[in-house]
Amino acid sequence: MDHYTTKNFMLTQSIGFLLTRSRNLIVAEMDTGLKELDITSQQMGILLSIQQGVATTPFELSKLLEIDTGLMTRMLDKLEDAKGMLERSRSVDDRRVVNLKLTKKGEEVTARIPEIAPQILNARLRKFSKAEFTELCRLLRKFNGD
Asked: Which residues form the HTH marR-type domain (predicted)?
């Protein structure tokens, strides 16, 4: 079934526009809320991924978070050099592989994220019932092919 036609297509009503606008709202609100931790929402994704063991190399992070490798390198440089929140080391098994580990400061900052992020997301979702929230998540997973 075609949901869009040349007659009914309007930019501001397209799924791409609506998803981008939603993403931008969440990113802006999350960035504001995370200022006290001196991190951005993208950096939060990196720190949580490492903490939870979901991704432990720059390549894995790039793939998971859909961030190009050049930007990922710059973000990791900032988290390591400027903020002291992570450290990189070469794999002993394969010198081409770089492993990432949170520093003590990185662990402390990451431990505080759950105090902030849920409040921000819940504020954005406050008009949704539990059933609507569940359905939204289901539909987004379906849309993403999960």
From this structure: 12-145
Question: pLDDT value at position 97?
Answer: 87
Q: Which residue has the tokens 């040349």?
A: 6
Radius of gyration over alpha carbons of the chain, in Å?
Answer: 18
pLDDT tens readout for residues 51-84? 999 999 999 999 999 999 999 999 999 999 999 9
Angstrom distance (rounded) from CA 123 to CA 118:
8
pLDDT over 90 at 24, yes or no = yes
pLDDT computed for residue 74 by the predictor: 96
Q: What is the CATH number that goes with domain 14-143?
A: 1.10.10.10
Distance CA 132, CA 134 (A): 5
In total, the chain counts a number of residues equal to: 146
Q: Quick check: 64 and 49 in contact, CB under 8 A?
A: yes
User: Which letter, b or e, does each residue of 127-139 get, where b requires 16 or more Cβ atoms within 10 Å of its Cβ?
Assistant: eeeeeeeeeeeee
Q: How is the chain split into domains, by residue range? A: 14-143
